[in-house]
Amino acid sequence: MTKPPLTLYLAAPRGFCAGVDRAIKIVEMAIQKWGAPVYVRHEIVHNKYVVDSLRDQGAVFVEELEDCPDDRPVIFSAHGVPKSVPAAAETRNMIYVDATCPLVSKVHIEAERHSENGLQIIMIGHAGHPETIGTMGQLPEGEVLLVETVADVATVPVRDPNNLAFVTQTTLSVDDTIDIVAALHARFPNIVGPHKEDICYATTNRQEAVKAIAPQCDALLVVGAPNSSNSRRLVEVAARNGCDYAQLVQRASEIDWRALEGIKTLGITAGASAPEILINEVIDAFRTRYDVTVDIVETAQENIEFKVPRVLRQPA
């Protein structure tokens, strides 16, 4: 039986970013150095396949430091942690390795610098997300105020409207954040922003790639986890840029084939914590049902690499 034709627009860049790649390497190298088990506070990155793979190698994932024994190493996830967490680990004389993405650490340093200059911080982010919790936890309670929407800006209760700075979560929608920043500047004309945008290069690049393919697509699938902020933003970006059907799937088994009946063009991308093997799995699933032509649409090239912590490096 002849398969129907399908043009598949494959977004580039997609999938793993430098911070995610570094965090996974840190867990693998820690297991090699200290043996299993190695504890990881929170999912190292938001992807079930990655977490399950590391668990098979000897990683134990917990939500809080108190769930870890004193005599085994613990790794802090790529999203960052409040200052109280490494302080507690030191009190217990634990071995710990911080896998916080360097671009998240940059935001932490910015917030501390602003605070040292007497400024109260407004953070644009998602309540309850581990990155937001980690960034707000760099300073005493009340020194970082959270806003999620333009509407929040109108009511955020600041100490002094003339002594403010703002930072952002690194995985936000670029377009949404522009609107929130504009609202902050309108209400607080003297607010200080970051020297360089806090939304990370990988988030921006993946959103730009989706914008490039979305208008051509009958449907677009984002390979990623439901608790991955950057993956969920890609779905929103696709929907806003001309794609009528945009969905998040963790694996090929989650594809809703009935919803895709009759499509002739499909976009595929992946969040920054989704490995290429899952993207290929989805493409292979379409090849079994369609005569697929793959068109790679590249909007940026990425060559960034972050070093792993010194404690895990092999001697030269």
Automatic annotation (TrEMBL):
[4Fe-4S] cluster binds at residues 17, 101, 200. The keyword Magnesium does not apply. Isopentenyl diphosphate binds at residues 46, 79, 129, 228-230, 273. InterPro entries: LytB/IspH. GO terms for molecular function: 4 iron, 4 sulfur cluster binding; 4-hydroxy-3-methylbut-2-enyl diphosphate reductase activity; metal ion binding. Binds 1 [4Fe-4S] cluster per subunit. Its cofactor is [4Fe-4S] cluster. (2E)-4-hydroxy-3-methylbut-2-enyl diphosphate binds at residues 46, 79, 129, 170, 228-230, 273. Dimethylallyl diphosphate binds at residues 46, 79, 129, 228-230, 273. One of its GO terms (biological process) is isopentenyl diphosphate biosynthetic process, methylerythritol 4-phosphate pathway. It is an enzyme of class 1 (oxidoreductase). Pathway: Isoprenoid biosynthesis; isopentenyl diphosphate biosynthesis via DXP pathway; isopentenyl diphosphate from 1-deoxy-D-xylulose 5-phosphate: step 6/6; Isoprenoid biosynthesis; dimethylallyl diphosphate biosynthesis; dimethylallyl diphosphate from (2E)-4-hydroxy-3-methylbutenyl diphosphate: step 1/1. It holds the Pfam family LYTB. Its EC number is 1.17.7.4. The active site is at 131 (proton donor). It catalyses: isopentenyl diphosphate + 2 oxidized [2Fe-2S]-[ferredoxin] + H2O = (2E)-4-hydroxy-3-methylbut-2-enyl diphosphate + 2 reduced [2Fe-2S]-[ferredoxin] + 2 H(+); dimethylallyl diphosphate + 2 oxidized [2Fe-2S]-[ferredoxin] + H2O = (2E)-4-hydroxy-3-methylbut-2-enyl diphosphate + 2 reduced [2Fe-2S]-[ferredoxin] + 2 H(+). Keywords: 4Fe-4S, Iron, Iron-sulfur, Isoprene biosynthesis, Metal-binding, Oxidoreductase. Belongs to the IspH family. Catalyzes the conversion of 1-hydroxy-2-methyl-2-(E)-butenyl 4-diphosphate (HMBPP) into a mixture of isopentenyl diphosphate (IPP) and dimethylallyl diphosphate (DMAPP). Acts in the terminal step of the DOXP/MEP pathway for isoprenoid precursor biosynthesis. HAMAP family: IspH. This is 4-hydroxy-3-methylbut-2-enyl diphosphate reductase. The gene is ispH.
